[in-house]
Amino acid sequence: MLAIGDELLSGRTKDRNIGYLAEMMTVAGIDLKEVRIVGDEPHLIADTLNTLRRQYDYVFTSGGIGPTHDDITADAVAAAFSLPIGEHPEAMSRLSAHYVARGLEFTEARRRMARTPEGASLIDNPVSVAPGFRVDNVFVMAGVPNVFQAMLGKVIESLPAGQAIESVAVACPYGEGDIGDPLRALSKLHPGVAIGSYPRFDGERFSTEIVIRSRDKAALDAAASAVSTMLADKASGAPAATPG
């Protein structure tokens, strides 16, 4: 994912799209591998986009496709693909009808939201009409969270679903420092499973939530059982299992 906007880097806007995308990708069985945040600099956006699109199957962007002068994402995407940019006929039709229905002038600023790189296909916007667009494996969407979410819903419908990742959460009464070594050993014993630890503090003591994830149900169950056994052994003082 590529999140775009000076306001994200200055802290003025707190991003809500990254977490939502991560949740939806997990449900769809698609691995989110990397997230970058860049400011409103055309060359930086284009260079970063070129790096990501050549490395991953899909790239999702957020931000910078509104009506103001600093909404430059469409231009940067066009530059990344070495494509001319212009007003997309269907986007123009949708926006024109939208503003006529509202009794508002279809100004030059509003027409900017119809600009896409040549050959782009549109991403529907059921919230505020102004569409996002797709070029090759790059999906360009709005930064406003409810609009981003609506657009992403349309995008996911068009993507082939992967095998969903299942997860099991195991409550652990020990802090991470107490279980780090046995968890590392279990990770080596269960290479097809991701085992993560997330510290908790209730104001009095530390604990940990251990989350096990895998697309293989049998492997997931085996790792979850091993984690539970490790915790039981620790409580009883028995030595932890080690890789053979």
TrEMBL record:
Domain of life of the native organism: Bacteria
Pfam families noted in UniProt: FLAD1_M, MoCF_biosynth
UniProt cross-references to InterPro entries, sorted A to Z: CinA, FLAD1_M, MoaB/Mog-like_dom_sf, MoaB/Mog_dom
Boundaries of every MoaB/Mog domain copy: 1-162
SMART domains in alphabetical order: MoCF_biosynth
Name of the protein in its database record: Competence/damage-inducible protein A
